[in-house]
Amino acid sequence: MKLQKQLVIISMLTALTVVLSLLFIFPVPATNGFVTLAEVGIYTAAYLLGPLGGFWVGALSGGMIDLFAGYPQWIFASFIIHGLQGAVAGYFFQKSGKWLHGTGFVVASLVMVIGYALATGLMYAWPAGVASIFGNVIQNVFGVMLTLLLIASMRKINFPLMKEGPR
Predict the structure, then answer these.
(1) For residues 92 and 76, is the Cβ–Cβ distance under 8 A?
(2) DSSP H helical segments within the chain, as ranges?
(3) pTM for the complete prediction?
(4) Burial status of residue 80 (CB atoms within 10 A of its CB: 0-12, 13-18, 19 or more)
(5) Residue from 158, 136, 146 nearest 43 by CA
(6) DSSP β-bridge partners for residue 27
(7) How far apart are CA 141 and CA 39, in angstroms?
(8) Domains, the chain, ordered by start
(9) What CA–CA distance (Å, rounded) separates 69 from 164?
(10) Computed over its alpha carbons, how large is the radius of gyration of the chain?
(11) Transmembrane ranges (predicted)?
(12) What digits encode the pLDDT tens for the residues 5-61?
């Protein structure tokens, strides 16, 4: 894929992820954070574009969501955590075999949950970091389920970015 085309796709998926996340935002006062649907965009980008695209969509959308939602203290942490989440997912999604895709979801979700627990603990206190785990696990489970539905729908219509075609 040409660089310009890939940059446009990354930009569009980032914008869609930010909009989707800001439409459905659920504040969590205990951690001074919130729960969104960002995982749907990040995992979909990782599935379609691999680790590099997953990293950039995760990093850019994570930072912008925090900026626009009024949580600027989280921008740097979200850039790193969601970027790594997208890169890890994209790495596993590029490998063949459904069990590796499942492993990608699990490992990438762990990167996000552990990353935010550590960041929250450093920024506020370890009890806040522990309190963030439940909400982030729920966010990832819901994000994985919606991503699987979206990918299945894209396969049915032979979405042009899908490499493997219908299954």
Answers:
(1) no
(2) 3-23, 38-69, 75-94, 98-123, 126-156
(3) 0.88
(4) middle
(5) 146
(6) 34
(7) 9
(8) 3-156 (1.10.1760.20)
(9) 36
(10) 15
(11) 6-28, 40-59, 71-93, 105-127, 133-153
(12) 889 999 999 999 999 999 987 776 766 667 788 999 999 999 999 999 999 999 999
